[in-house]
């Protein structure tokens, strides 16, 4: 009963064998299909996309359809879900990744923000699970994500895509109830979506839960998952995963760590780079507002002006620190705007509630730290504002990627001071469209500066009230525990949870990282003393607050740069450039390779001759030696 459009979609999303249809020269697609081998594993490359299917003659089409329905009827389940989600055409990353994922190949994929990477890994995963039902109650797919909110979102997408199948999913992220997660994990869900910390907690504390049956491991936001923040935890997780797994890495930005991992631990991975590392979403309009020297204190006024006059709803405002996010939340609220906040200082319930209110359009502005910068797919975000430039170009790409998603347009406005011009230059350099400057009239900024000055007292009062409330809640909690103990109704104390590092090691690694960061950013004793003194001051000026934001970003950037400079690990195989890049490389640019690389990797006849025993032809000529080898026949 399928109409033509629908059947076409079956192939577009699901046919793993289409790679052989028009481009495979070794065996014709007809042979493959009639032999029912139907998977052209030896020829699949990123360029064999599902586009080919559009050019099929009707007879081919009919035959393929029959085969799909006979042997791959399960595909219809995904198709139903995809149709229910309103996806008409697969996005380029989905076209490229679905067939490769279906074949069980390792994958390293990079595509701009908001281009549908979640479905690109979920669709093949679900298909494979349905096609090969499990024999025992074990978890077979693990998706790792860096933030709790992203975990919840990926889990929801997975559930939607699996809605017509019997595949079970489970979410194990921090901040949510441990006990119910333990119960769900014991049931052996097919797909587990987790954040690293909570996953390790379960691995060590939930009896009978293990990763030895994991068939597919997916790292969403792979570069973040493999950066130093998660380094130890990822090592532990990968150690506990089954060796014979398929691994897929996805992100809008890739890093050396990802490339290292791809080179060393993936098995013949296919690299699919739909976009380059620093590409922003295609329909994003990028703007910046210049903050003049010694005018850093105007940032709040500029933001207030932008939000009250120009960008009034569906706005995400990013700050570097939780403190600044919270302050702006209070300030903008006092200015009469409908605003919410999202950062690590809040409880998980508060985080989720604020996110829900923003999604449901109950609030117009969400002030957030980088915890909301990656992966979050919030429908209809029109504008992203950066209070200060983020620490690295990658952070910028992810932050501005919260708008202009799924083919829609959007705008980003970044406030750029003197010390952030370098970052702006980087953004301009990699931008495909012009980055525009936005100018605000001075009188408007002055007006808002005055207004904020007048509100300063109220901001202080709100903060004081919050502090008191927190203290009261904490003492009430203590009191109630003590009371329960006295009555004998309180549980004696929860059994100690085990972690793969001791408490001491964990604390030490955190402290040493923080100190290193601090040292890097504050070279020089004087600067350090001033910083410490300022930090202790309760009342900072707006200028000092802005400087602190920038300093925080610089601390991170310097640390990232230091890591980049660190000697790289030996790789299992030389890392090629992407095929396209390699093909485009001009002969001249090869000269940039070090002599060492050149000698080791050049396998041309000429270069091999050079290393044969005896002097080269050129040397022989120079030394006036006979061309014939001694003992050679005349
Ligand atoms: N084939 C499709 N057709 C239409 N919309 C799609 C399609 N695939 C995904 N989408 C929609 O595009 C949006 C972005 O998808 P998704 O969150 O997977 O992007 P992403 O590439 O993972 O982004 P990020 O890099 O920010 O994590 C979602 O709202 C999703 O529903």
TrEMBL record:
Principal EC category: hydrolase
Entry GO terms, CC: cytosol; nucleolus
Swiss-Prot/TrEMBL catalytic activity: ATP + H2O = ADP + phosphate + H(+)
Skewed-composition ranges (Polar residues): 490-503
Domain Helicase C-terminal: 302-452
Family: Belongs to the DEAD box helicase family. DDX27/DRS1 subfamily.
Species this chain originates from: Fundulus heteroclitus
Residues of the Helicase ATP-binding domain: 98-272
InterPro entries tied to this protein: DEAD/DEAH_box_helicase_dom, DEAD_box_RNA_helicase, Helicase_ATP-bd, Helicase_C-like, P-loop_NTPase, RNA-helicase_DEAD-box_CS
GO biological process, one term: rRNA processing
Family annotation (SUPFAM superfamilies): P-loop containing nucleoside triphosphate hydrolases
Key words of the record: ATP-binding, Helicase, Hydrolase, Nucleotide-binding, Nucleus, Ribosome biogenesis
GO MF assignments: ATP binding; hydrolase activity; nucleic acid binding; RNA helicase activity
One Pfam family here: Helicase_C
PANTHER family found in the cross-reference section: ATP-DEPENDENT RNA HELICASE RHLE-RELATED (PTHR47959), RNA HELICASE (PTHR47959:SF22)
Composition skew (Basic residues), residue ranges: 562-571
Cellular compartments annotated: Nucleus, Nucleolus
Region Disordered, residue ranges: 485-506, 560-634
Protein name: RNA helicase
Biased composition, class Basic and acidic residues, residue ranges: 618-634
ATP-binding keyword on record: yes
E.C. designation(s): 3.6.4.13
């Amino acid at each position: 009963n399928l109409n033509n459009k629908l059947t076409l979609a079956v192939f577009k999303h699901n046919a793993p064998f289409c790679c052989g249809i028009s481009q495979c020269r070794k065996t014709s697609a007809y042979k493959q299909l009639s032999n029912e081998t139907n998977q052209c594993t030896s020829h699949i490359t990123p360029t064999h996309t599902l586009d080919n299917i559009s050019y099929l003659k009707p007879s081919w089409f009919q035959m393929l359809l029959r085969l799909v329905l006979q042997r791959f009827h399960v595909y219809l389940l995904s198709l139903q879900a995809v149709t229910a989600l309103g996806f008409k055409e697969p996005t380029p990353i989905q076209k490229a990744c679905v067939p490769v994922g279906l074949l069980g190949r390792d994958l390293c994929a990079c595509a701009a923000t908001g281009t549908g990477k979640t479905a690109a890994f979920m669709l093949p995963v679900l298909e494979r699970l349905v096609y090969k039902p499990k024999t025992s109650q074990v978890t077979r797919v693990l998706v790792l994500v860096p933030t709790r909110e992203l975990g919840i979102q990926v889990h929801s997408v997975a559930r939607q895509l699996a809605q017509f199948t019997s595949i079970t999913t489970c979410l194990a992220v921090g901040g949510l109830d441990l006990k119910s997660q333990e119960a769900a994990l014991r049931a052996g869900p097919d797909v587990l979506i987790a954040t690293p910390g909570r996953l390790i907690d379960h691995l060590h504390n939930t009896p009978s839960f293990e990763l030895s049956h994991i068939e597919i491991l997916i790292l969403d936001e792979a570069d973040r998952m493999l950066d130093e923040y998660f380094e130890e935890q990822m090592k532990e997780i990968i150690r506990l995963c089954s060796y014979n797994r398929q691994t897929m890495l996805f992100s809008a930005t890739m890093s050396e760590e990802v490339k290292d991992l791809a080179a060393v631990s993936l098995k013949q991975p296919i690299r699919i780079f739909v976009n380059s590392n620093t590409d922003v979403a295609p329909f994003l309009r990028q703007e910046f507002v210049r903050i003049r020297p010694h005018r850093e204190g105007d940032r709040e006024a500029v933001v207030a002006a932008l939000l009250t006059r120009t960008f009034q709803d569906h706005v995400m405002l990013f700050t570097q620190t939780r403190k600044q996010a919270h302050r702006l939340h209070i300030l903008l609220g006092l200015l009469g705007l409908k605003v919410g906040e999202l950062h690590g200082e809040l409880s998980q319930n508060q985080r989720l509630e604020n996110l829900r209110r923003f999604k449901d359009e109950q609030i117009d502005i969400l002030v957030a730290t980088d915890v909301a910068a990656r992966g979050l797919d919030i429908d209809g975000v029109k504008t992203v504002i950066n209070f200060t430039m983020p620490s690295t170009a990658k952070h910028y790409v992810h932050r501005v990627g919260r708008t202009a998603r799924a083919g829609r347009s959007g705008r980003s406005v970044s406030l750029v001071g003197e010390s952030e011009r370098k970052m702006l230059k980087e953004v301009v350099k990699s931008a495909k469209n012009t980055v525009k400057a936005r100018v605000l009239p001075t009188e408007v900024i002055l007006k808002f500066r005055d207004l904020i000055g007048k509100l300063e007292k109220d901001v202080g009062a709100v903060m004081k009230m919050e502090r008191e409330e927190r203290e009261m809640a904490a003492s009430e909690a203590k009191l109630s525990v003590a009371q329960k103990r006295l009555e004998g109704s309180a549980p004696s104390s929860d059994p100690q949870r085990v972690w793969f590092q001791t408490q001491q090691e964990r604390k030490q690694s955190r402290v040493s990282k923080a100190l290193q960061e601090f040292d890097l950013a504050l070279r020089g004793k004087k600067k350090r003393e001033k910083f410490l003194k300022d930090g202790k001051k309760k009342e900072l000026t707006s200028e000092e607050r802005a400087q602190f934001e920038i300093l925080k970003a610089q601390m991170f950037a310097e640390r990232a740069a230091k890591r980049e400079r660190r000697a790289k690990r030996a790789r299992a195989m030389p890392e090629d450039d992407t095929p396209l890049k390699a093909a485009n490389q001009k002969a001249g640019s090869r000269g940039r390779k070090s002599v060492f690389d050149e000698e080791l990797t050049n396998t041309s006849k000429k270069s091999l001759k050079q290393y044969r025993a005896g002097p080269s032809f050129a040397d022989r000529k120079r030394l006036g030696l006979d061309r014939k080898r001694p003992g050679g026949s005349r």
